[in-house]
């Protein structure tokens, strides 16, 4: 029998922004990646000829934090609002990086009212970029070891089976969610519990968990 492999998930920061703030968003990525903090940003990290919306959803689901470049423009952006809603639904931490002295619109206030803010004014922005880097690196250092180094050992065949079962409910996104959950779970029970929580309907959560518990057919 071949030895089990360790499944690890490389964590990263998802950078959400509106097009007028593109220069600031890419400057954030440049500073963070220079400090060893991996980032995901559109359109740079979207594969050619891929489904744009699906890749963004997958990327948010797998991120450990969303950095929201917050301005009057992003405050009114439907795309930014959808990304923030998705992050909240998936329990991804949101860090608003406020580059203008504006408050969230009603459509965003519900999601951002309890978040920690970093104000990036007055200029120069470089000072605030460095502060953002320091904050994220300190958060990574404070995270539990299994969240940084990946979790336990899971049999690849077992993960493949669980992924197929989850795909019956949510489709191709299952692969990303299984990898992320495997990297954060201490045992099989926790893995199944994490994945079950991704399903919206209680009936689906219960059915998925029961199917995962059934012995594999031989």
In short:
The chain is built from 11 helices and 7 strands. By secondary structure, it is an alpha/beta fold. It has 2 domains: 7-143, Toll/interleukin-1 receptor homology (TIR) domain (Rossmann fold, 3-Layer(aba) Sandwich); 149-213, no CATH class.
Can you walk through the features of this model?
- This protein has helices at residues 22-34, 52-62, 72-75, 78-89, 106-112, 125-142, 145-149, 156-170, 173-184, 188-196, 202-213, and strands at residues 5-6, 13-16, 39-40, 65-70, 93-98, 118-119, 153-154.
- It has 218 residues and is of the alpha/beta class.
- The chain has 2 domains: 7-143, Rossmann fold (3-Layer(aba) Sandwich), CATH 3.40.50; 149-213, no CATH class.
- A 5-stranded parallel sheet has the order 3-2-4-5-6, sandwiched between helices. The protein has a two-stranded antiparallel sheet with strand order 1-7.
- β5, α5 (106-112) and β6 form a beta-alpha-beta unit.
- α8 (156-170) crosses α9 (173-184), α8 runs antiparallel to α11 (202-213) and α10 packs antiparallel against α11.
- It is elongated and about 60 Å long.
- 30% of the residues are buried.
